[in-house]
TrEMBL record:
Gene3D superfamilies named among the record's database cross-references: 3.40.630.30
InterPro entries recorded: Acyl_CoA_acyltransferase, GNAT_dom, Trichothecene_AcTrans
Coiled-coil blocks: none
Full protein name: DNA, SC005
Region (Disordered): 89-113
Taxon lineage: Eukaryota, Fungi, Dikarya, Ascomycota, Pezizomycotina
Pfam families hit by this protein: Acetyltransf_1
Length: 209
């Protein structure tokens, strides 16, 4: 299965939304994002928005041997990478100790409210809010790369994660990600270590760097 890694483009986003549904099909993710048309539309719009964000990279892995006539999927995985805020020519603010600190703008995140009507909005707030708090707890105010991969075929997730690992090494920065139990094998094999865990509605989340 010859695989190629590319940047996703807006016409890919409906396919990526469908791939999210098939990849994250466990009970918790189905509860978080029901398999309904408005959720699919929301994911399509969210991913399209992130493609247009200069501080994000939406990657796809394609199977060049796939035969659409046999309903074989061409896109077999994707990952959304958030890039660290730039430091050059960035405005500074004076800290409480009198030293200068880099002031960074927040990412315009496609995966944010308003949530789809058929979703449990309170659960979405708990899940995404908790993930942000855990991320800050693990990484503090460091600059770092972080990602949301969606792939389960052998080697696809590794390709998607290695893209960011290589760039983080070049920049001398760390990488952060979170995962459920299903993804632990891939990330720990790539050298990630669990730094903390969290829980939302009975779902354990592993926090890696």
């Amino acid at each position: 299965m010859p695989l190629e890694l590319h940047l996703a483009i807006p016409p890919d986003t409906p396919t990526l939304a469908t791939l999210f549904f098939t990849t994250f099909s466990d009970a918790f993710n189905t509860k978080l994002f029901p398999r309904t048309p408005d959720v699919h539309t929301w994911w399509t719009r969210a991913l399209t928005k992130d493609i247009g964000n200069p501080r994000k990279r939406l990657l796809k892995v394609i199977d060049t041997d796939a035969d659409p006539a046999r309903n074989e999927p061409t896109i077999v995985g994707f990952a959304l990478w958030s890039l660290p805020a730039p430091v050059s020519n960035a405005p500074t603010t004076e800290s409480k100790t009198g030293s200068e600190e880099i002031q960074t703008d927040e990412l315009e995140d496609g995966l944010s409210p308003p949530w789809p009507e058929s979703c449990d909005g309170a659960l979405c707030e708990r899940f995404f809010g908790s993930n942000y708090e855990w991320q800050v707890k693990v990484m503090g105010d460091k600059r770092y790369y972080w990602t949301h991969p969606a792939a389960r075929r052998r080697g696809v997730a590794t390709m998607l994660v290695n893209w960011g690992l290589e760039r983080a090494r070049e920049d001398g920065l760390e990488v952060y990600l979170s995962s459920t139990q299903e993804g632990r094998f891939v990330y720990e094999r790539l050298g990630f270590e669990v730094r903390s865990t969290g829980e939302v509605d009975g779902q354990t989340i592993y926090l890696y760097k």
